[in-house]
Amino acid sequence: MTPIKRNLLYIFRDSLLRLRITWNHGTALTLSVGYHVDKTDARGKSSWDGSRCRKNTTHGKDRISAGIINKALENLEDKVSKAFFFFENIDHIPSKEELKSRIENSDENTTKDQKKLIELIDEFLNEQSILNQWSMSMLVNVRKCLLYLIEAYGPDIQLDDIDDTQYAKLLKFFYNRQTIVKTLDDVPIIRKGLKNTTINSYLNNIRRFVRWAEKKKYCTTCTIANQAPNLKTIKKPIIFLEWSELIKLKNLDLEFLEGYYNAREMFLFCCFTGLRYSDMKALRWSNVYEDHIEVVTQKTADRLSIDLNKFSKEILEKRKNLKTEEDGFVFPQMSLNHFNVLLIKLAKMANIDSDIEFVQLSGAEKQVIKLKKYECISSHAGRRTFVCNSLSIGIPPNIVMKWTGHKNYKSMNPYIDITSSAKQENMKLFDNLPPLSPDSSSENSSDLS
Q1: HSE (CB half, 13 Å, CA atoms) of 369?
Q2: I want to staple 347 with a disulfide (CB 3.0 to 4.6 A). Which of 254, 267, 294, 374 is the partner?
């Protein structure tokens, strides 16, 4: 399926609102929305923002409310999207007449079963989000996965129509899908093919939806539910900061860079407590005690008591002296995306630039991506840094798990594996022991005999 690039623009004939659609290098179709829209009200205040009527405004001689007009605009845009999906699915660039006919007859072309799939997705999300107490981000991610079914197959897909051939088409869609990745300099890079780890995540959510639909008798058999659970993946390196790199970051002069300074202190606090970004951001002074902090994690709802060390205490002491945050928060309320951008720039400023090589699979195709370490730093690197450095200095894994909330040793194994250098250093302690004398060695051997 080849995506058809199109552009939608609202234009006016006097006050009559119209939608102009352009595609295929200049082919254009103009449709009437059916409503008169006033760009400004009686006082000269703007009533139209370029794509929607502003809230609490009325338009035309009949004073139609903005809500009614905006709903009509959404419905029209939905019909346009479905029409293009249809032509994309058959790999055909429509003419002006073909697109107009498809849009005008969209209600007739929409079958009962086609509507049901979209309704099923909404029913599934409404039900499961309540039963499983999904967060808003979880709800958004699952919905995104399920809508890929419609994007891959077109709007006419039914679950019972997905056989092995259609499943292969879905995988091919993921393998060929392009993603845009921004570099540190905000230069977008287009990469072809989703990673198998990402595809596995999407497929798990789709399988969950299909099994739910089968249980509800909304479909009989769908190949997706019976396919192999996972595509092959390659473990990616665990990104964390060595102690020497933490020192570089700590010693950066950020006196006149308040945003960078705050981001560094927040990250270092994660490095010395093992907190996730969400829990660090939500930390309040009421959760801070003399020698520990207490948090209820947002991801797993675990209640954790985390002991403080001299490094985390130092950060808290500096925050206490500032104490400018509102609502009792210990740290500034910074968005995760902005925080991660600042982290990458901080790591680059600190010359944390060792080479990192990622090997990943998209289907059977192996992709090798070489990056500098500062490009790989994100908020979760703070939690990984805490775990890796804790294990490296000899703190038992079961104690670290008490602080981090890890449930079993399996989840700790990746961190234990990369601390082999610490094991080598500990083995060298045997070299400090006095040598065994030949005499004592022979005496021991005679005793044994």
Answers
A1: 20
A2: 374
